[in-house]
Amino acid sequence: MREMVTVRTDVGPSEPGWLGEMTGAIAAEVVQKVFPSQKGRGGFHAQVSRFVRSDLARVASAANGQQDLAAAHLNLPAEYGRWLAECGFPASAVRDAYWIGMRQMLEQWAKRGWTGAVVDATGGNGATSETVALVTTAAFDCTERGIKRAAGAYDARLAELRGQGSLRRRAVVQEILGSAVESGGEAEAALGYRLSQSHVCVLLHPSEPDEAKESLRAARSETGAVDLLAVALGASWCTWLGYGMAAGVETAGRLRDVLREAGVRATIGGPRDGTEGFRRAYREARRAEDLTALLAGDGTVLSYHDVALEDVLLQDPARAAQFAGDELGAFALDSPRAARMRETLYTWLSTGSRTVTATRLGVHENTVRQRLRSAADVLGANYQQRRTELLSALKIRCALGPMDAPPTAPAHLDTSRC
Fold first, then answer.
1. Domain range for residue 383?
2. Of 3, 131, 151, 230, which is least packed with CB atoms within 10 Å of its CB?
3. Chain centre distance of CA 349
4. Is the whole model's pTM more than 0.85, yes or no?
5. What Gene3D superfamilies does the annotation carry (predicted)?
């Protein structure tokens, strides 16, 4: 028997490379096969990845005889079961996700020569028959134990939700979103929430339910909402904040700022009025959630109102990127000079004033004049006539972030000579 040593399965910036790579591959497979409706939703993928990473660490620890370390991860399966119940997924998802995840785990480890699975006393990762047997046995054992704990937690949480009326509220909300309900009445009575008011929808992606509740209480207080409805839909805490009178876009802005200060991940839709507004605010929040995977930046809290134009421009991201590259030429590149030129062009094209542009950028007006003059070398002498196209291209470039150099100069570069 070879001597076993501790396997590094720490999570964070210093986690071993194999752990992060395998976590991503396994989580993607689980989402695609078990939760296809959640594909592309970053918050859901992050939660699945969290559970997968824990299972990987548990299997590696068990395979190396580190039973204490393996036991330290046993609380996650129960949390996983409760989470699935709250999200409204069927009980079969518990077992399906575990077995698909285990199969993908073994396949991924085999592809990597069992790196990180079992480490010997010299720090080596020998891909021996003993390694395969140890890891396979540990994987089956951890999977069976995980399913048992997760299924028990799922059933217990489902019973709690049923007793609290949460399942009934979720069903009514789904009927409304599916256009089966056009007015208040019974639906309002079941929800304890008025549909005739102005609605802002918030999709939260907390790691803990208590975090979501605290953030929502603060949001309601800070924005003056008179009504609040929260249900779990998919992997999100879906919340509608109701405002007795028509709410303006500034309400969504205040809400965005409050949630950012709380440090949560969220997307916002609305405000919209009435029953149809209830649905539309939800659709906007979902669309903002989908856009977070495309947009550059941290995307912690995103309001649809702030990215509505980007949504239209990015219906076909590949074509949008090509359009931006064609319009901006070298100014689409990821360089300090290109960034300065984009900022100058966007401000000037938006305001039409060199003086205002200089003030906003904190530079001399002559600097703005020189930059605009040099822009003609890249964009063509008559680039001012393409104001709408350039503003759209600059919006796309800001949304998508760095892009490759365009293969040719902008198509309109020599139009002044025609």
1. 317-417
2. 3
3. 32
4. no
5. PucR C-terminal helix-turn-helix domain
Same domain, 365 and 337: yes
Cα 107 from Cα 22, distance rounded (Å) = 10
160 and 257 in one domain?
no
Q: Is the Cβ–Cβ distance between 252 and 200 less than 8 Å?
A: yes
The count of other CB atoms within 10 Å of the CB of residue 45 is 20
Q: How many domains does the chain have?
A: 3
Residues 190 and 307 in one domain: yes
Is the confidence at residue 199, as pLDDT, over 90? yes
What long-range pairs does 155-158 form, CB within 8 A, spacing at least 24?
155/81, 155/85, 155/91, 156/82, 157/81, 157/82, 157/85, 157/86, 158/85, 158/91
CB 106 within 8 A of CB 117: no
What does the block give as tokens for 268? 């916002």
Can the peptide bond before residue 317 be classed as cis, meaning omega within 30 degrees of 0? Answer: no
Contact 206, 47 (CB under 8 A): no
Q: By C-alpha distance, which of 272, 263, 275, 270 is closest to 288?
A: 270
Please provide the size of the chain in residues. Answer: 418
270: region left, alpha or beta (phi > 0 left; psi from -120 to 50 alpha)? left
Give the pLDDT score at 100. 96
Rounded CA gap, 97 and 200, in Å? 33
Give the torsion through C-alpha atoms of 170, 173, 178, 179, to 10 deg: 150
pLDDT attached to residue 91: 92
Q: Is residue 139 part of a domain?
A: yes
Q: Which residue has the tokens 């069976």?
A: 144
If we measure between CA atoms, which residue out of 161, 191, 163 comes closest to residue 175?
A: 191
Q: Which residues contact 294 (CB under 8 A, 6 or more apart)?
A: 314, 317, 399, 400
Per-residue pLDDT, 400: 86
Name the token pair of 335: 């360089």
Look-up of token digits 């303006």 = 248
Q: Which two tokens stand for residue 287?
A: 């669309």
Cα 285 to the center of its chain, rounded Å: 12
Domain co-membership, 387 together with 346: yes
Please report the pLDDT score of residue 127 as a whole number. Answer: 61
Calculate mean pLDDT across residues 59-72.
64
